[in-house]
Amino acid sequence: GQLAAARGTLVVNDPEHLALAINKTYFQHFPEGVRPAARISREVDTIKRFIEEREGRAVIKPLQGSGGHNVFVVKQEDHTNLTQMIEAVLRDGYAIVQEYLPKAAEGDLRLFLLNGQALEHQGVYAAFRRVGADGDGRSNLTAGGRVEPGQPDEQALRLVEMVRPKLVRDGMYLVGLDVVGDKLMEVNVLSPGGFGCIADTTGVDFAEIVIVDLERKVRFKSYYGHRIPNAQLATL
Questions:
Q1: Hey, CA dihedral for 78, 81, 87, 91, is it positive or negative?
Q2: What angle do CA 221, 161, 173 make, to 5 degrees?
Q3: d(CA 44, CA 52)
Q4: What kind and span of H or E run contains 188?
Q5: pLDDT of res. 46
Q6: Beta bridge pairs of residue 118
Q7: What's the rounded Cα separation, in Å, for the pair 217 and 21?
Q8: pLDDT tens string for the chain (236 positions)?
Q9: Across-strand partners of 179?
């Protein structure tokens, strides 16, 4: 992607920033008000201490990865197996442990942003609710989660406003936010899938809207060439 952009091709999301944004440490650069409390560590005792401080409930996941792989929702009754859970995550490198949000039991909202704004057409937002399979704390579709209709409330739209400046600055054109209550669980910038699910639940083909917008950017590129950096053009 970086080589293509250097040769004059429009690349979205901007590859220079995407190389950093695919790591979950990127999430920690957003305002504290949008994020659950978290620790990033490779120390088993540090992770355990964080969980103990939150009455034995937390979420542990690899710092890099997707699809719900090696994501554990820790409950108080799981503590006999806690060390094994942590070690399973640490095999992939650093772990991030987040506070457990009780509303996560109801699933999360996948909300798409385009050019740093909530993607919307005729009063319908590009969003759906993901609900985990029975007995599974993960809502990832690849982990057996199911899709239900869902639209953002005022809290979710406020989160969009708070993360927008950084996403626009970094050239993050198409982004999927995973929202639980008034917090973000993930900012998906590499492969924010689910457009087929949105079409099924809303009847709106948001993919067509994205393609039309990309065509508009290609025209901008033809006007200005290298005079506007790729990261800026990506979110105009």
A1: negative
A2: 25
A3: 12
A4: strand 183-188
A5: 96
A6: 113
A7: 22
A8: 999 999 999 999 999 999 888 887 888 899 999 999 999 999 999 999 999 999 899 999 988 766 567 889 898 888 788 999 999 999 989 999 999 998 888 889 999 999 999 999 999 999 999 986 554 444 545 445 688 999 999 999 999 999 999 999 999 999 999 999 999 988 999 888 888 889 999 999 999 999 999 999 999 999 999 999 999 999 99
A9: 109, 184
Would you give the distance in Å from CA 156 to the centre of its chain?
13
- Helix-strand-coil percent breakdown of the chain, rounded to 5? 45, 20, 35
CA distance 30 to 159: 10
Residues in the chain, how many?
236
Which phi and psi angles does 181 have, rounded to 5°?
Answer: 60, -120
Segment holding 109, helix H or strand E: strand 108-114
Longest dimension (CA), the chain: 62
Retrieve residue 199's tokens: 């079409």
End-to-end CA distance of the chain: 19
* Distance from C-alpha of 173 to C-alpha of 12, rounded to nearest angstrom: 6
Contact yes or no for 185/105 (Cβ under 8 A): no
Strands 58-62 and 124-125: unpaired
Q: CA angle, corner 71, sides to 138 and 181, nearest 5?
A: 45
* Mode of pairing for the β-strands spanning 146-149 and 95-99: unpaired
